[in-house]
Amino acid sequence: MEQPSPDCVQSRVFLSRIFVVIPTYNEGRVLASTIRGLLPYGYSIVVVDDGSSDGTAAVLAHNLKDLPVHYLRHPVNLGQGAALQTGMDYALAQGAEYIVHFDADGQHPAEGIPSLLAPLQRGECDVTVGSRFLDPENVNLIPRGRRILLRGAVLISGILTNLWLSDAHNGFRALSRAAAQKIRLHENGFAHATEFLDEVRRTGLRLREVPVAIRYSDYSQAKGQPASNSVNILIDVLLRKVL
Amino acid sequence: MLPIQAILIALLLLIGGIYLTALSSRLVSRLALLSLLGAGVVFVINPDLTTRIAHGVGVGRGTDLLLYLFCLASVTVFLKLYKKNRAVEEKLTEVARQVALQGAQAPHREA
Questions:
Q1: Which residues contact A223 (CB under 8 A, 6 or more apart)?
Q2: Closest Cα partner for A32 from A71, A3, A88?
Q3: Which parts of chain B have pLDDT scores under 50?
Q4: Does B110 fall in a domain?
Q5: Does A139 fall in a domain?
Q6: Is B77 inside any structural domain?
Q7: Which of residues 80-109 of B touch A (CB under 8 A)?
Q8: For A92-145, what is each residue's pLDDT tens digit?
Q9: In a mutagenesis test of the B interface, which of A86, A90, A239 is the best target, namely the one with the most B β-carbons within 10 Å?
Q10: In this structure, is residue A174 part of a structural domain?
């Protein structure tokens, strides 16, 4: 994947209509390196600090000081879904043409963003989601336990949303402006991934999966959602459906 | 009157008093609560009444009937609270979002 030189990046960085929204909660250090990985692409970067505790917020603010990012902060912790929605609201207000959802912990590859955007830019669909299961090589990167859990999540998500995808809950997505205006996430926590698909189906947006490789670092493994959390997500989603 | 009856009636009256003065002011909920408390007092004074009603609907004992009703009421309360909690959460989200959007810092332009 071509990487533009840093010089031409500087002039483009504030002008890009492609907004990468990164929700973050209590992860000051790794975020800065995630952002550095994105900078060469010249996207507008929106960091939404989801009410990190005081110490982390200070570290975060310090680390971001010299980076060309838009910085927003929830006064209290609400959840990743809420942070994404705030970031999308902001990006839309700034005139975003495309919005990418990106993880703070560096597991989403920056070089995957152009492939997520391409079908949108060609007008072939309105929403793209990254899938770890479309490319057999990527599948092998996923730890075995995760793989089984994810297959289960795919099944449940399919039953609930009637959208049958190859992957679930990886959170690497891109939306056109029109799609971002239609989708509204009310699910503050991690259940937003299912809600997102629900919204796509409800609003009749065209969705496509794009193969991506997710990096499983020790950090993201340790920090990521524990398997037990999937039960909580399921309960959230079900209660939401019933009430 | 047995001591337990006096205690229960006193507590029922106390709950009624607190509810009517401090909590809801809606006529419907006041009337509902008053009739519920009234029934409570009647059942405390006349415990056999619950058993007779229970037999009428095919339940063995009055206590069992009360237990079933209590379970139903608990679930209803739980669902109501859950819904209310969600509504509060959504309002909080909206407020926090507005605060975040108003305090947003764009990148320094000198770069």
A1: A27, A105
A2: A71
A3: 110-111
A4: no
A5: yes
A6: yes
A7: 82-83, 86, 89-90, 92-93, 96-97, 99-101, 103-109
A8: 999 999 999 999 888 888 989 999 999 999 999 999 998 887 777 777 777 777
A9: A86
A10: yes
Residue B94 lies in a domain: yes
What is the span of the domain harbouring residue B89? Answer: 61-104
Boundaries of domain holding A38: 9-242
B5 and B39 housed in the same domain = yes
For residue A240, the surrounding DSSP H or E stretch is helix A229-242
Count of domains forming chain B: 2
A1-24 tens-digit pLDDT: 444 544 444 444 446 899 999 999
Distance between CA atoms of residues A184 and A167, nearest Å: 21
- Please give the residue of chain A at the shortest CA–CA distance from B80: A243
What is the Cα–Cα distance from A114 to A109, expressed in whole angstroms? 10
Q: CA of A2 to nearest chain B CA: how many angstroms apart?
A: 23
DSSP letter for A162, please.
-
The C-alpha angle A11, A15, A20, rounded to 5 degrees, equals 110
Q: Count how many domains chain A has.
A: 1
Q: How many CB pairs under 8 A join A and B?
A: 61
Task: Tell me, yes or no, whether B71 and B39 share the same domain.
Answer: no
SS3 B2: coil
Closest residue of B to A9, CA-based?
Answer: B111
Highest mean pLDDT among A55-59, A196-200, A214-218, B17-21: A196-200
H helical segments located in A122-171: 136-139, 144-161
Q: Which of A10, A12, A13, A14 to mutate to test the interface with B (most CBs of B within 10 A)?
A: A14
> Alpha-carbon distance A30 to A42, whole Å?
20
